[in-house]
């Protein structure tokens, strides 16, 4: 019996509210003011002003007028009160160490430097913790890939989601047929509804034996409208690269590029954040199914392609050499990068990797079966949340 099922039998004993207490503690700490010397990136006006200031770098009266004009234009579009030049200068001056960080954005954390998705989309702000701009995403869309191996522990999605929402992730990833259960599960558990990330494609390349006719297609041509109806805060599709000698490798790559481009067009129209899952695979030893590709000369260019095609957020597999995370983050700018949580056998190693990924600049982490199959999902998730968001 899966560990999630075991939790369902004993969920009453875990109603001590520790997750809520941790959330409340974080909110109280966030509302108590920012640390000395750190700009307040939580305030959307400060974020916009930081972006304009770093672009213009005003040194003359004319340059300052440009800053004010751009800022007024943004205020008009968003309904914010318009400020004169003196107020704008004072606002910048009051940001802690603003003259240092705003004039040199490289001194800011990597996940804060790429602010464009927060500026463009209110939905994106639901995906990430507003205090630190980071995310824990729990993926539970495995059933859509039509392989019985992926169903262990998620047979009853209503029960599984009732457990997962109590772990307080920032987002949960689901397919269209199961997404409506997120709201009902949250209501049943008495918990806030996590942001929904909707899986938009379906593929048969994840099966135990490689199919004769591989495919990866969008589920329907109006999937973004479905995402809006379901109140999704983001959508996700896969950019695939198979071994060159795999049957249909070129066509699969072409299909997934087309999927990303199609979604990009629809996401722009509806202001929906687009997440691209970057996945390169290679043959296993028996050459009858795939394992993850670890060659950075293949994975890094594929991640860059996802960025070039317009992915707002990229989900990437962690490289074997943890230092190569920096390479992935560098080539993918300005897209935000989520890393799949490591699946090391020991729990301490997984949590330590989570800390390192965040310290290197990842915008968040994605876990699925590592949480679902854990002996104590609540405790493990709290440790991961601490690694991502701090105390």
TrEMBL record:
Region ranges (Disordered): 1-41
Superkingdom of this protein's organism: Eukaryota
Kindly give the Pfam families that the UniProt entry links to this protein. DeoC
Stretches of Basic and acidic residues bias are at: 9-30
SUPFAM superfamilies with a match to the protein in the record? Aldolase
Annotated GO molecular function terms are: lyase activity
Coiled-coil ranges per UniProt: none
Annotated signal peptide: none
Entry protein name: Fructose-bisphosphate aldolase
